[in-house]
What does this fold into?
Amino acid sequence: MQVILTFDYELFFGTNTGSVQKCMIEPTNRLLDIAEKFRVPMIFFVDVGFLIQLNENVEKFENLKQDWNQIMTQFERMARLNCEIQLHIHPHWEKSYYDGEKWIVNVNEAYKLSDFSNEDAVEIVRKYHWFLSEIAQNTITVYRAGGWCIQPFSQIESIFKELGIRIDSTVFPGGKFESEHYHFDFKQVKSFGNPYRFQSDVTKPEPNGYFLEVPIASWEFSPLFYWRLYILGRLNPTDHKMIGDGTFLAQPGRKKSVLLNKTWNHVSSDGYYASLLKKQARFYKSKQVETFVVIGHPKGMTHFSLKCLNSFVADTKSSYQFVNYSACSL
It folds into this structure.
């Protein structure tokens, strides 16, 4: 079985974005230490809209120049370790700005590409792809939608084809959520399935489709798991407190829902989720799944999750193939 370790490289999008140092640089260096130690690749889906905003402000603010330089240095380390950066779009950066002290994030009618007109969405994709291609040492051919909000894919189908973005890795089977800002519905995607071709709808396999969906692995979590997660965070904050220093964008009703109901969610290396990686991988292998995609966020790493991820890689490197998306055949 192939294992792809992926991370969404970004700040927070709540009232406090957190710092580049604590949300991106520090935890990512810890992740890259694991990549270097075990010689396994990792893929970082880079929030390009933030980088564009950062780049536009570096000459005005010395602290932002330091942030930019640290990120570029980190990208160089990624490349040396055979880790890739790929495209991640949070279009709310089109309406957000730096006020001289902090980032002012505006997600209202701007959190997902479908909040924009078709013409504007196409131009955002084109601009972000070009910008990332200019600073990346690998070709940009893989996409993950910000907040998993990739629907409707038909809005960006043509521009993806034009730019050669052939692989998507947004879908996690069974997932569904809708709120003021979020909208995604992957309920009809087969659980424990393999990568599949598609054309205009990421949830509908088409044998001759131009694009390849490489789904994030998903899992049905019990309420007990989430009770443990919340309790451990309070009893042992040293191990279970996120390294990132920002606040999440609100997901109204979600906390209550997961504490009361079984929930399909992605397989993750964030926080307490990382404690299940070995069990989940064994189960996926028993189902003869070809590709096991794990999602994480540097900002969501904890000392506990980094230990779990280190242990997962150490114990399974001889059993699984740790690969980049280029190993997935189109």
In short: The two ends are 17 Å apart (CA to CA). The chain has one domain: 2-327.
